[in-house]
Design a protein that fits this description.
heterodimer, A: mainly alpha, 69% helix, B: 74% helix, 1% strand, transmembrane (chain B), membrane (chain B), Tripartite tricarboxylate transporter permease (chain B)
């Protein structure tokens, strides 16, 4: 059993803790002079705690979890890309179109039949859009389907 | 007597048709959240928070809605435990032991009915305990100074991993990460910009709601994608109720014991609902030992853990409402709602926002009745929904989370942040860093810093003020125990819980 996961995490956290703590020391002294507790006091404590924690992780790491490889890793990246592209297209394309595509793709990649998956996307998108825009009068972007 | 009149006022708040409607809606949605795969109670409540905001609900209504969801989720968790031997949420684990064998013997309907009644009893006992204990604790908490609060926060973090937690160091790391995120933004006392990188959106800090939704909802989706558990479950038949009145009566002592034990476990830091149901079940087994058929479908084996976990869920509200320090993931999410409503949780809430506190407590009582009434006739509906495959459900849930977060600020910047938190949540969960302390850190970080500052200003910069009063020393000691005990006792308890699970006939 390897335990690279915790070691890498520990290293990352150590870097984070040091940078975080260092940045806290760079702030200008607040207006009115220094007091017992400045804006940097609390972050400095946190950075010390995290340094200790990350060192512990590197010295006594837990055994590794099963990391996704091959197909699962690919599916994971696809889902992430879908989420980012969904956010990107939400306003330009409008809620209904982008949601149909996003929910449809996700369902399909999770194992749904393509037609059924995109139908689920379309129906849920329309229901939520109508519910929000007309029922609750909160405006979701209409995008391409906007009727002026 | 004072309590009683407050409670009456609470009922006056909770019984208005508007609030009653939301309580009913919350109870229904909560049960769904509890029984659906991939939607835990903390996750479900988190997704509903932005929606409660955008609906513009008044604070008491929003809290009533979310507490009903919380109570409902505890009811819902048992349905898949009994029918599928898969606990809907962690506290429902013990219900599998006798619930599933009962279902295999064709007594699924009986198991569901008895567990609904036991949930009701447990919830009722827990809520009565809450009504009696909370005002006393709130009065006591008024004597806390900033130093005591600081120690109390430490205690909350230290015990959050729970006695059954694995690696306390990972709890510490998780909490620190959460607090670090909360320091982003303009410092409230001095106006210094901290970690804003001159990005305008960061000046106000990172909204913890989108962090919570991202950490829970998005990481859950990623987990499902990874394990490809998208397929549905086979349809279940429930059958008719054959439970006799005598059988029901015979479980009353069990329910009472379970409810009381659960409540105590819920109030205590570090125990929580899972331990509550575990203790209730084990105690029942000890008490009735030879007279029962535990593990083979004894109705008392269903009643005990259900009463226990519902008692515990009400008990867990005690520290959250009186001290502003939640002891579990879901109560942490409820705290997030309170903070975003601009209500400072803690002892002052009982005087300043009495209508909200007592409205919520009254809503819990009403919610329990509603849930009992909902659960017995509607169980068929819930069972049918249980067979919705996650591959259709989870993308829709994710989309609702997007809509909720988007509708708060109408900015896609927040959505990217949410996705980023989701990815971070996925990695943290993979590395077994618990998420609940991260969230608690996000929520309590600013309060902690404020109290530290106040304490040090009062003492003129003398750090020993933090451990100078007997009360704060006591709190520090318990906090220390909270970190040490899991290392000593944890493995034994975990092994026992595991052994109990193994004894039961495994499915298929």
């Amino acid at each position: 059993m390897t335990s690279f996961g915790d070691r890498i995490l520990g290293l990352g956290l150590l870097v984070l803790a040091v940078v975080y703590g260092w940045a806290a020391q760079q702030w200008p002294e607040p207006f009115g002079g220094a007091e017992g507790v400045g804006p940097e006091t609390f972050p400095t404590i946190l950075s010390v705690v995290l340094v200790a924690g990350s060192l512990y992780l590197m010295i006594r790491p837990d055994p590794d979890a099963q990391w996704p490889v091959g197909k699962s890793a690919l599916e994971l990246s696809i889902s992430l890309v879908v989420l980012v592209v969904y956010t990107l297209l939400l306003e330009p394309l409008g809620f209904v179109i982008s949601t149909t595509l996003a929910v449809g793709t996700l369902s399909w990649r999770m194992g749904g039949a393509p037609l059924k998956a995109f139908m689920t996307g379309l129906v849920s998108a329309v229901v939520v859009f109508v519910l929000f825009n007309y029922g609750l009068s909160l405006s979701l972007p209409g995008g391409l389907l906007e009727v002026n | 007597m004072e309590t009683l009149s407050f409670l009456m006022e609470g009922f006056a708040v909770a019984l208005t048709p508007y609030n009653l409607m939301f309580a009913l809606f919350g109870a229904f949605v909560g049960t769904l959240i509890g029984c659906l795969p991939g939607l835990g109670p903390a996750n479900g409540v988190a997704i509903l928070i932005p929606l409660a905001f955008t609906l513009g609900l008044p604070p008491e209504t929003a809290m009533i809605l979310l507490t009903s969801v919380y109570a409902g989720a505890m009811y819902g968790g048992r349905i898949s435990s009994i029918l599928l031997n898969i606990p809907g949420d962690e506290p429902a684990m013990m219900t599998c032991l006798d619930g599933y064998p009962m279902a295999q013997q064709g007594r699924a309907a009986d198991a569901l009915a008895i567990s609904a009644v036991a949930s009701f009893t447990g919830g009722l006992i827990g809520t009565i305990g809450l009504i009696m204990l909370a005002p006393i604790l709130a009065k006591f908490a008024l004597t806390f100074g900033p130093a005591e609060y600081f120690a109390l926060f430490m205690l909350a973090f230290a015990t959050l991993g729970g006695i059954t937690g694995k690696n306390p160091m990972k709890t510490v790391i998780a909490a620190t990460l959460g607090i670090m995120v909360s320091t982003v933004g303009i410092d409230i006392s001095t106006g210094t910009q901290r970690y804003t990188f001159d990005i305008l959106e960061l000046y106000e800090g990172i909204d913890f709601i989108l962090a919570i939704v991202g950490l829970f909802a998005i990481s859950e989706l990623l987990f499902f994608v990874e394990s490809r558990m998208g397929g549905g479950r086979k349809k279940m038949t429930v059958g008719k109720i054959t439970l006799s009145f005598r059988e029901l009566v015979s479980t009353i002592p069990t329910q009472l014991r379970g409810g009381v034990l659960g409540f105590i476990a819920g109030v205590l830091p570090g125990a929580g609902a899972s331990l509550g149901s575990f203790i209730s079940y084990t105690l029942e087994k000890q008490v009735l030992g030879k007279k029962g058929t535990f593990g083979e479908g004894d109705i008392r084996g269903v009643a005990a853990p259900e009463a226990g976990n519902n008692g515990a869920s009400s008990g867990a509200l005690v520290p959250m409402l009186t001290l502003g320090v939640p002891g579990s993931g879901t109560t942490a999410v409820l705290l997030a709602m309170l903070i975003s409503l601009n209500i400072t949780p803690g002892p002052l809430m009982f005087t300043q926002n009495a209508d909200i506190v007592w409205g919520v407590i009254a809503a819990l009582l009403i919610g329990n009745v509603l849930l009992l009434v909902l659960n017995i006739p509607l169980v068929g509906l819930f069972v049918r929904l249980l067979s919705i495959p996650p591959m259709y459900l989870l993308p829709i849930v994710t989309m609702v989370a997007f809509v909720g977060v988007y509708s708060i600020s109408h900015s896609t910047f927040d959505l990217y942040f949410m996705v980023a938190f989701g990815v971070a949540g996925y990695f943290l969960r993979k590395l077994e860093i618990p998420l609940v302390p991260v969230i608690l850190g996000l929520l309590l970080g600013p309060e902690m810093e404020k109290n530290l500052g106040h304490a040090l200003v009062l003492s003129d910069g003398d750090w020993s003020v933090l451990w100078s009063s007997p009360l704060s020393i006591g709190l520090w000691l318990v906090a220390g125990l909270g970190l040490v005990l899991p290392v000593l006792v944890g493995p034994i308890l975990r092994r026992r819980m595991h052994a109990a699970m193994k004894e039961s006939p495994v499915s298929d």
